[in-house]
Here is the input.
Amino acid sequence: MEINQHSSKEYFKLISIIHLYLVLGIVLFGLVVSLFIIDFRQVDTQSKLAKLFVYLVPGLVIVGIVAGNMIFRTKLNALKENKDLKSKIMGYRESLILCYMVFEAPAMFALVAVFMTNDINFIVYAVLMVIILAIKRPTTKSAIADLQLSQQEVAFLEDPDSIIM
Here is the structure.
């Protein structure tokens, strides 16, 4: 079995592609929902489901933001104890993807709420989550800051040709 090795440049390119696809998934799903509900004239605000969504969608967004950040910070604290850069980098990737998925779920739920109620106001929550995901874009500098790497590890990570995985 052959193990693929990735340079620092390839590693961050791969994580950036995953991040981009997650953000594009939300945006494209939002466009599809908007195409199905073109007129937004028959907004359902009176049904029990619509009244539930008024509280559920913002609640899930808040829980998603808090949980995503807590999960990410907890995993980062465990990674900082590792001595091996490769295990730190692999764990960092897992932490980021998990955090992104926790941020993506409330955005998708908000878009489903838009689809089910024709209420365009729920799109605000999906846009908020897309903005948060855009802010959390993975970079070499953010990895260095998050993992609190030593100078030697920083030099190794900033070298685009160094094999880190």
User: Anything to note?
Assistant: Residues 8-33+46-158 form one domain. Helices lie at 8-36, 48-80, 85-117, 123-135, 140-147, 151-158.
